[in-house]
Design goal:
alpha/beta; Nucleotidyltransferase, domain 5; six-stranded mixed β-sheet; five-stranded mixed β-sheet; 7 helices
Length: 227
């Protein structure tokens, strides 16, 4: 099967919205998600929104731990039913499914060891090192003063504590995570990355939509090894 952009549908599922587009270009289409959003809802919306598009394969980024094209633990910000759900069978197309932060990290990678932090509804994370991509659950690690890193750096932490405290917490997290991962650089993505000004040393940001599209292409081109 071809690894170029033609015929590839890209689906980015997040804690607040699901977006989809054709990898070859064109506008994103999106619908809201949330704590009642189930995989069956995702399938129905994909079928409706992509009804007029021609595609023969699908790349999906989904919150939560993913292995062998299956979600293996319940996503924290979505509804029930995700664990073990077979998207390929439900959609009738070949599907490659990875964690949503990992998909963006694959698109953002330029070489070396890169730590990706997705600043959105929650805190996504992934490491790409020499062409090997690994999803991380750094958001579930305990914050030094109590709670978790996601409690501080997710959307609720931003709303609760305000931007100034949130930026300070982010700088603290980067100072912990980057040396632990021996990262050459840290890439910030997700919808709230736009709030990070100025960027901390050793960090860069980019267009999350471009990251998703590039990551989907690399996923289907088998350009990287996904663990």
């Amino acid at each position: 099967m071809s690894g170029n952009s033609e015929g590839l549908l890209v689906v980015d599922i997040g804690g607040s919205r699901m977006r989809l587009m054709l990898a070859e270009g064109g506008p994103w289409r999106e619908v809201p998600t949330g704590r009642d959003f189930r995989p069956q809802d995702a399938v129905r919306q994909i079928q409706e929104l992509a009804d007029v598009w021609r595609f023969d394969r699908i790349a999906i980024g989904c919150p939560g731990p993913v292995r062998a094209e299956r979600v293996v633990a319940p996503p924290l910000h979505l509804g029930p039913g995700w664990v073990g759900f077979d998207f390929a069978a439900a959609l009738g197309r070949p599907v490659r499914l990875v964690n949503d932060a990992l998909l963006q990290a694959m698109g953002a990678w330029r070489g070396g060891r890169m730590l990706y932090l997705g600043l959105g509804t929650g805190l996504g994370a992934a490491l790409v090192a020499e062409g090997v991509a690994v999803s991380l659950e750094l958001g579930q690690l305990p914050w030094p003063a109590g709670g978790t890193f996601e409690d501080r750096l997710g959307a609720r932490g931003l709303a609760r504590n305000g931007r100034e405290v949130w930026l300070s917490d982010l700088a603290r997290a980067i100072a912990i995570f980057a040396p632990a991962m021996i990262a050459d650089e840290v890439v910030l993505g997700g919808g709230n990355a736009r709030l990070v000004e100025p960027l901390p040393p050793g960090c860069r940001a980019g267009d999350p939509e471009a990251f998703v599209r590039s990551g989907a292409l690399r996923l289907w081109q088998a350009e990287m090894r996904v663990l």
